[in-house]
Amino acid sequence: MSVTPEALLAKVKEMYPEIAKYKLKADMRYDEAKKTWVLELVKNGHVLVTHIEAEDAEKCLGGVECVYLTHQVGQFIRVYCEGGDSCKV
Predict the structure, then answer these.
(1) How confident is the model at residue 32 (pLDDT cuts 50, 70, 90)?
(2) Highest taxon of the source (predicted)?
(3) Mean of the pLDDT values across residues 24-51?
(4) Per-residue pLDDT averaged across 4-26, rounded?
(5) Looking at residues 29-51, what average pLDDT do you find?
(6) Residue 74 — pLDDT band, cuts 50, 70, 90?
(7) Cα separation of 89 and 81, whole Å?
């Protein structure tokens, strides 16, 4: 399976509709040096940068698992959006 930044970001947004709800800036890119995908979420000066291994990205797109990535994204949303005032809608 070929992974693209657009497809992987779309999958993350599908799993976390809060990204759109809270208008988080989201960017996905591949880090050639580390051979990992990098997800960056930004809202009002708060930044989350997290990585997903290439093999895990393929599994994620295949609907198998995205455990580490979803934990990080979920925690960012809970802390800064649902538990704070950074993401008022």
Answers:
(1) very high
(2) Bacteria
(3) 93
(4) 92
(5) 93
(6) confident
(7) 9
Residue 49's φ and ψ, nearest 5 degrees, are -120, 120
49 vs 73, higher pLDDT: 49
Question: For every residue of the chain, which 3-state class applies, written as one string?
Answer: CCCCHHHHHHHHHHHCCHHHHCCCEEEEEEECCCCEEEEEEEECCEEEEEEEEHHHHHHHHCCCCCHHHHHHHHHHHHHHHHCCCCCCC
Under a CB-based contact definition with an 8 Å cutoff, are residues 27 and 49 in contact?
no
Exposure string (b/e) for 52-83, b if CB count within 10 Å is 16 or more?
Answer: beeebbeebbeeeebeebeebbeebbeebbee
Cα–Cα distance, 55 to 77 (Å, whole number): 25
pTM, to two decimals:
0.84
